[in-house]
Amino acid sequence: MFWWRNEVRPGVSVAFTDTGAGNLALHVGDNPVDVMERRVHLSRVLLSGAAGLGAEQFQYMDQVHGNTVEFIQAHGPGPTADAMVSVASSAGPRVAPQPLAVMVADCVPVVLVGNDTNNDAVIAVAHAGRPGVVSAVVPATVEAMRSRGAVDIHAWLGPSICGSCYEVPEQLRADVAAQVPATWSTTSWETPALDLPAGVRSQLEALDVTVEYSGECTLENDSLFSYRRNSRTGRFAGLVWTHD
Ligand SMILES: [Zn+2]
Questions:
Q1: How far is the CA of 160 from the centre of ligand 1 (A)?
Q2: Handedness of CA 140, 146, 150, 153 (dihedral sign)
Q3: pLDDT score at 50
Q4: For the chain, what are the domain ranges?
Q5: Which pLDDT belongs to residue 244?
Q6: Which tens digits make up the pLDDT trace of 93-146?
Q7: In the prediction, which pLDDT does 53 show?
Q8: How far is the CA of 122 from the centre of ligand 1 (A)?
Q9: Distance between Cα 184 and ligand 1 center (Å)
């Protein structure tokens, strides 16, 4: 069910699902009732014992390969965005950050955790495909976290297609690498490619964010969904939540 799961700070956990958790996306032609059942099951497994109101389910978003970052206070209709940030609310009774989810199948799922001045967690997720790397959705997410006082930010990069597999036309490689040089790559069969995780890593390190790689190549691992392997594939998720 989980590719990787860890308590990354006391009371803050990060996970990436695998095909064992099933498809978690509503937009890929799967039966929506089945998708919602899988999401509920995932929430039950991970969030029982989670702190605070509204913490009983993950917030998903309607991802459009843009660079909009939404602040999320409580669970609601999925925003059209490619990144979300949530902080503990200290106005009135303390409310824990809203658990967040990002869906991918080859794009880079990024989960970020920082601390605010009250030493509460500031959590975030971002969806970084090729357009998102070019439009700097991950740096925008870091800026949004810092605008809410986050310091000591760490990022976890989950599974995505790797730089030895993600073949693209030569001109596209040139265009993307002109924006983010670390993406320039070559496939294992010696054709032009892009290394999206390397690009995201370079963007994060330029902002002094510590990066931990929790991934592997989606195309090369049957236990992960890959759009390049099958265009009718499902989506797995990167998840972050707080708990006691
Ligand atoms: Zn690969």
A1: 8
A2: positive
A3: 58
A4: 2-161+211-242
A5: 84
A6: 888 999 999 999 999 999 999 999 888 999 999 999 999 999 999 999 999 999
A7: 47
A8: 32
A9: 15
Give me ligand 1 centre to Cα 188, in Å.
Answer: 9
Distance 166 CA to ligand 1 centre (A): 7
Rounded mean pLDDT of 48-56?
A: 59
Range 2-161+211-242 has CATH code 3.60.140.10? yes
- The sign of the dihedral angle between the CA atoms of 124, 125, 130, 135 is negative
Verdict on whether the full-model pTM lies above 0.90? yes
3-state helix/strand/coil string of 7-62: EEECCEEEEEECHHHCCCCCCCCCCHHHHHHHHHHHHHHHHCCECCCCCCCCECCE
Which residue matches tokens 């949530």?
Answer: 86
The single-letter code of the amino acid at 236 is: F
From ligand 1's centre to the CA of 187, what distance in Å? Answer: 9
> What distance in angstroms lies between residue 195's CA and the mean position of ligand 1's atoms?
10
